């Protein structure tokens, strides 16, 4: 079994950014600073931004850099505490009660069945109890959960602890690195935001997007890679952006580059852009909007001047 690489010391912002880059994640200075401060201050980091800009991928890359176990809590409408924190293994408890029937008092039996060995640990509790060097907990798309669940998270985010009625308070011996992501489908409460450091993750500038595509799709030719990055940048800018409900994210840029390589594309042309529009866009109207005329316009605008 291969040895786990040692964690990055992350003694500076530059060292952290370089370590993330070795994992294929290109963080700009502001983002690297936000992550560095979250690590140094042991505070949760809330990342907001459009879908596909790299929020979740940052958590994955950071877990590898820190050599920490990545625990992911995927939020959704109706998410309950037991799905995030713990639930009791009722089947095992029932077997214990049947086996001990008649040998102990009711109070003694209750103490026996409410023990840690009967807990089914979910991501929050796993993160608090993770052995050294600790865990990285990703609370993904927290905006999809409801307000009562936000309130439930406050104790964890503020103090790295949770309360279990039958066992008491469980505190983290090693504070988990905690990253929350939000696509802004709804506004999060001020209470959540106060407990976190905050960073808005925007679409990347051209040079960063080009570096990402080169790293993630090395089999793409230099000319095609440059065209892909420049073309997607143009789709996000006016006047092209006005034709679409949602601009492509970094994830779509990378996936598009991979698809173009699979099609043996060497250079972009309006036809191949139109035929592969369903990779860049996920809305029917957006796919239809990227017709031959708009593709030609964006290709011409993305060409280097001079």
TrEMBL record:
One Pfam family in the UniProt entry: AAA_5
Gene3D superfamilies the UniProt entry points to: P-loop containing nucleotide triphosphate hydrolases
Domain of life, per lineage: Bacteria
Domain (AAA+ ATPase): residue spans on this chain: 41-211
PANTHER family for this protein: MAGNESIUM-CHELATASE SUBUNIT CHLD, MOXR FAMILY PROTEIN
Protein name in UniProt: MoxR family ATPase
Native source organism of the sequence: Comamonas faecalis
Lineage: Bacteria, Pseudomonadati, Pseudomonadota, Betaproteobacteria, Burkholderiales
């Amino acid at each position: 079994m291969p040895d786990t690489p040692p964690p990055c010391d992350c003694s500076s912002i530059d060292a952290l950014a370089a370590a993330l880059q070795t994992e294929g994640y290109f963080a700009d200075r502001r983002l690297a600073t936000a992550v560095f401060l979250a690590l140094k201050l042991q505070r949760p980091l809330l990342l907001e931004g459009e879908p596909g800009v790299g929020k979740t991928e940052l958590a994955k890359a950071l877990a590898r850099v820190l050599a920490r176990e990545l625990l992911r809590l995927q939020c959704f409408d109706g998410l309950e505490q037991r799905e995030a924190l713990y639930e009791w293994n009722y089947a095992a408890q029932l077997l214990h009660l049947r086996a001990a029937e008649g040998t102990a008092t009711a109070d003694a039996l209750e103490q026996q069945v409410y023990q840690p060995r009967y807990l089914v640990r979910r991501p929050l509790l796993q993160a608090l109890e993770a052995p050294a060097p600790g865990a990285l907990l990703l609370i993904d798309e927290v905006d999809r959960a409801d307000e009562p669940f936000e309130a439930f998270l406050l104790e964890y985010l503020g103090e790295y602890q949770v309360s279990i009625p039958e066992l008491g308070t469980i505190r983290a011996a090693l504070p988990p690195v905690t990253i929350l992501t939000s696509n802004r489908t709804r506004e999060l409460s001020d209470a959540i935001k106060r407990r976190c450091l905050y960073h808005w993750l925007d679409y990347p500038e051209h040079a960063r997007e080009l570096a990402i595509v080169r790293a993630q799709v090395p089999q793409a030719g230099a000319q095609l890679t440059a065209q892909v990055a420049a073309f997607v940048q143009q789709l996000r800018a006016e006047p092209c952006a006005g034709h679409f409900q949602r601009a492509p994210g970094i994830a779509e840029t990378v996936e598009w580059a991979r698809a173009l390589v699979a099609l043996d594309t060497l250079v972009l042309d309006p036809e191949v852009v139109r035929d592969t529009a369903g990779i860049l866009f996920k809305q029917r109207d957006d796919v239809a909007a990227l017709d031959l005329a708009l593709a030609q316009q964006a290709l011409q605008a993305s060409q280097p001047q001079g």
